[in-house]
Amino acid sequence: MKKILVPLVILALALSCKERQEAPQWQNPALDNIFTRVSVRDYTSQKVEADKVDLMLRAGMAAPTARNTQPWHFLVVDDRAVLDAFAAVNFNKPKIDKCALAIVPCGDLSKAMEGVEQEFWVQDVSAATENILLAAHALGLGAVWTGLYPRQERVEDASRVFGLPEHIVPLCAILIGYPAEQPAVKEKWNPLNVSYNQFGQGR
Prior knowledge:
Elements: H1 2-21, H2 29-36, H3 50-61, E1 72-77, H4 80-88, H5 93-98, E2 101-108, H6 120-138, E3 142-147, H7 152-162, E4 168-170, E5 172-177
Antiparallel strand pairs: 1-2, 2-4, 2-5, 3-5
Helix pairs in contact: 3-6
């Protein structure tokens, strides 16, 4: 059995490499936006326009949520003094020092479901976060997702800096600005990470 599996793995890797080298040019703006989005960590000093911030927030709130509970709250931080205070307690200080603003997607536990289902807020707010990242890219901005929850010390530091009440839990901080770098797009497609119908089963 092992003698058969090894050649199959090698073949799959070869096909994967070939596909990476011959990535298709998508003729669909939505797919282009998804496949070309990258994390940007260096920004110019240009401020982000209010209308673009509103569009990113609208994109975030267009995300799906369990039972349409929408258990979220979005904190927009564009005051340099507040950003500096956040940078002082966050390991991402070099990035925060350069960003024009941060959007902090939070879970609003007063809107979340009860019991074990309360934790669905994490999935809901994560979906909103990805929408904001994609919207930022579509608007010519650079952004990076920096994690807070479930690291308790990070949650507590952010809550203190931003004055968050107990029922508002910061999931992450999206750092945003006009890009001062153009990172290469990463090809992440790997057919070895896909099964059909049963784990480990191919087409």
